[in-house]
Amino acid sequence: MGVVLALLSALSYGVSDVVGGLAARRMLPVRVALVGQIGGLLTVTVVVVGVPHPPPEVVDLAWGALSGVGTGAGMAFLFRGMSRGAMSIVVPLSAVGGVALPVLVSATVLGERPPGLTWLGVSLALPALWLITRTSTGTPASRASLVDGLAAGVGIAIQYLCLAQAGAGSGLWPVLSGRVAAIVTVLAAAATIMRGSDGALRQRGTASTGVLAAAAGAGVLAAAALAAYLFALRTEFVTATVVLSSLYPVVPVVVGLVLLRERLRRRQVTGLVAALGATVLIAIA
To answer: Where are its TM segments located (predicted)?
Structure first.
């Protein structure tokens, strides 16, 4: 069941990226992030209020909040990196960094000892993520964009690692506190790192109701992905859960191929096959 939830998390993240990415073409990316986090917060609040949950422990709320800080920071750096025209480098760096750091910390600090097949799946998934998201002709990115990609990966890793520390009976409380912290973090990012953004990018500050709804929907899907990830951790190693949840780049590639009629490069096809193989290996371990 944990494997299925982790894959559902990846699916939700992938669809969220597609919806949010389309919205970001019409509105300032950091505002898409903010509206998304607000949408996620409202949705999780409704679920927590409507479905009986045990009273939250302070420590679980704290871990959730720290996870939200990672989410907000990761999104802020990722959007800034992409605004500098280095998407083909920033996205792979952030995705792979978000997987590699939790795996290393889980094995060296948390003392997890996943079976050999899991490690084989992990080792296959990392280059798969790189190949899937590597869509450009290989133009070198600026040093600043590389730093943004690495910083985004650290934020994503913090998100996964901190949420994994929440107690088994915490329910959705950590996801709720995380949305609050993510909103605060994105607001702080909007007031600081976006100040030097290109003027043309700043002109995308207004948007229609439809675009705002899409941005909010992306946030709802992202919150659902985090919830699925949290519950997947109840039965799976952090290592396996993080890797499976981080296979979300597969979704934008498939959507681009089928709906947007984009053409896959040979390395992307190789990456998709490797990602499928990694999923099978981790699932049967």
So the answer is: 61-79, 86-110, 116-133, 145-166, 172-194, 206-231, 237-260
pLDDT band at 200 (very low <50, low <70, confident <90, very high): very low
Assess whether pLDDT exceeds 50 at residue 141: no
For 28-73, the DSSP string reads -HHHHHHHHHHHHHHHHHHHHHHS--PPPPHHHHHHHHHHHHHHHH
The rounded distance, in Å, linking the Cα atoms of 23 and 21 is: 5
User: Measured between alpha carbons, how far is 218 from 204 in angstroms, rounded to an integer?
Assistant: 18
**pLDDT exceeds cutoff 90 at 179:** yes
Q: End-to-end distance of the chain based on CA atoms, in angstroms?
A: 13
What does the chain come to in residues? 285
Quick check: 56 and 170 in contact, CB under 8 A?
yes
> What φ, ψ does residue 83 adopt, rounded to 5°?
-70, -20
- For 223-282, how does the pLDDT look when each residue is reduced to its tens digit (9 = 90+)? 999 899 888 888 777 777 877 887 777 777 777 667 766 666 777 778 777 876 776 676
Total domains in the fold of the chain: 1
Domain span at residue 126 reads 2-284
For 109, other C-beta atoms within 10 Å of its C-beta total 9
Residue 131: closest CA among 250, 8, 29, 256: 250
The answer to whether residues 2 and 236 touch, using CB atoms and an 8 Å cutoff, is yes
**228: DSSP letter:** H
Q: Are 70 and 186 in contact (CB under 8 A)?
A: no
Greater pLDDT, 156 or 149? 156
* Tokens (6 digits) for 216: 């909010």
Between CA 11 and CA 14 the distance in angstroms is: 5
* Helix, strand, coil abundance in the chain, percent, nearest 5: 75, 0, 25
